[in-house]
Amino acid sequence: MREEKSNLEEHAEEELRRIGAFSEEDDFYGGMTGQAVMELVKVFADQGHSGMSASLVLSLFNKVADFKPLSPLQGTDDEWIEVGPDVYQNKRCGRVFKEGGVAHDIEGKVFREPSGVCYTNKDSRVPVTFPYVPKTEYVDVEEKEE
Predict the structure, then answer these.
(1) pTM of the full predicted structure?
(2) Where in the sequence is the domain holding 61, given as residue range(s)?
């Protein structure tokens, strides 16, 4: 095993220190965030990626770690789990539901206030036709006058 840290590990550790990710006082998880990220960075560094493979691995990892599908949803029976009477949630993409045989994406539209705050509501639902690649449309909302 190597004892020296890679350039990536040194960079990551320094950046994480700057934001307090190792500090029990500053970090939401008692300093464990920095440790968790460093474990991932070490594995990634040990794999010895070039620029091209690093980009591909990061892209795929970010999607699967965020529970995003890597290919279009098909809407087949094996993609659904029943979460209520005649209500199904897509196992590959938790934001897609099917009720009464009709599929919709509950994050199809995200509303954005002038302050940058974003939210969803009942109007966020968009109908889904399979095959489906989840996408979000951001809708800017005008400031409400008092």
Answers:
(1) 0.80
(2) 7-65
